[in-house]
Amino acid sequence: MSMRWCLLLAALGAVADGRTHEASSAAAAAGQVRLNQLGFLPGAQKLAVVESDEARAFEVLDARGEVVLRGTTTAPARWEPAARDAAIADLGALAAPGQYRVRVQGLPLSDPFPVDAQAYAALADASLKSFYLIRAGTPLEPAHAGRFARAAGHADDAVEIHASAASPGRPAGTVVSAPAGWYDAGDYNKYVVNSGITTWTLLAAYEHFPAFFRGRELGIPESGNGVPDILDEAWWNLRWMLAMQDPGDGGVYHKLTNLRFDGMVMPEQARERRYLVGRSTAAALDFAAVMAAASRIYAGYEAQFPGQPARMRAAAEAAWRWAQANPDAVYRQPADVHTGAYGDAKLDDEFAWAAAELYLLTGEAAYLDAFQRHARDADVPNWSNVGALGWISLAAHGQRLPAATRASAEKQVGGLAARLAAQSRRSPWRLAMQPADFVWGSSAVALNQGIVLLQGHRLTGERAYLDAAQSQLDYVLGRNPLGVSFVTGHGLRTPMHVHHRPSQADGIAEPVPGLLSGGPNPRQQDLADCKGVAYPSTLPALSWIDHACSYASNETAINWNAPLVYVAAAIQASTPTL
Ligand code: 9MR
Ligand code: 9MR
Questions:
Q1: Which residues does UniProt assign to the signal peptide (predicted)?
Q2: How far does the centroid of ligand 2 lie from the alpha carbon of residue 208, in Å?
């Protein structure tokens, strides 16, 4: 592409951005300076990416237009996910708080960005607050939800046992109560498997960075009750999860759901009959893992949650026993059920994770044996691959482990972090992400890689891990070839049309804030529902549309938001102050 053409496209992008503050495809034009739109902490690594096929000189201007830093980008290299060349401008020397812009020779001026000691505090709060805003079974009052206040939906106090979930004590058609919890995503169903990794990730954020979360007031109904808001919010979902256990035998229902997805309506207008569907080994083990971790963590708040740590321990043990007796109850979607499946036939990772958390809770050798039988090499976690969560919890409690277990946990977590850091170092965008990482929910792949990198930092103290994690957050917040911050309401160009029922149906132009868009996904599994809406590209990092039809690239989901909470809080808390 000629330079003049690049400049023209870039200028068009800038005009569109200024006028609409929306994510526009013009913003995806090459030849721009890509930056984290929330800026940087003073002590952080600060990188801009310049999409250019030659090294260029750059300057950083302060708010008065004075040049405060000069440099030259690295030599560009091709980044396969976008099939474009990119070079790095290192702005690290910039430390004084203020507003800045980057001027790269021959390119339009960058977006303004701050250097600010609280750069990610509001993001950490908002991404956590978004869980309150998607609570099921409760009205959101204006005092807590502002203009996103709404009536209660889905009381879930009379849900039917589906034939697929029948047990001797609860035959098909039995009516039970399983209220509260969070809506999974753009849809209004509640799935135990996905709740597992989500709730654990929030609990881990608290367990790893307690000082950050103590005393943060989010303005949720429980704020001020002497419990960190993150634990109050997680409890809203744990309450629901506890009701997903069959009291007869400890089995765990796979999901609480309609038979078909609701229309694009507000929660209170969605009145389909609700069912408990399936009982699965994966649900039982994810449940056991989360309840064991929660029992350990809420033990510090016994006074505010009397009896709950013991109840959660008993629930975890019962679910574990059920899974031992039913080790291959793989979820199969019944013919009359059409909502999310969260099906997973590979269960060693679920066994290993549950065993690790139960071992940490009880100290019983049988759990350590089970962990050793099931554990495999750690990999970046996602809802269907949770083995790393066990390794991470073990590594975080190394001092309580037999020496050999501690050594292997540190080797697994540290080794995975080292591999991701090496990928990041080699990447022209300084990202761990590879082309194959751009799957449904790719924004969360970036952040789960960030979580692993942050474990490398926690284990070794090495700065390179923190910097690589910062890069992953930068990607999600705008340093990407689309020039979009994927978090609703946080950034200069953010998703406006997420596939999220309340955001579509509430009559408010802006979507519910603090939600993470799934992100680019070249498989475009939603094409049949996006007729007449064109994805801009099939390239991995460009295959995203800010359109409500696009559940495969622009939905929101609890398991994607939780790693955003973790990484925003961890980077805010871990970056050295100057
Ligand atoms: O809204 C649903 C979303 O939460 C799911 O991720 C997605 C894939 O299962 O399905 C969405 O529902 C669509 C359905 O699959 C097909 N008809 C249109 C529905 C709304 O777009
Ligand atoms: O996040 C899930 C993704 O990994 C799967 O590829 C996809 C299709 O099965 O489903 C995603 O989960 C959706 C769930 O099934 C229903 N609620 C919305 C979730 C996010 O799109």
A1: 1-16
A2: 28
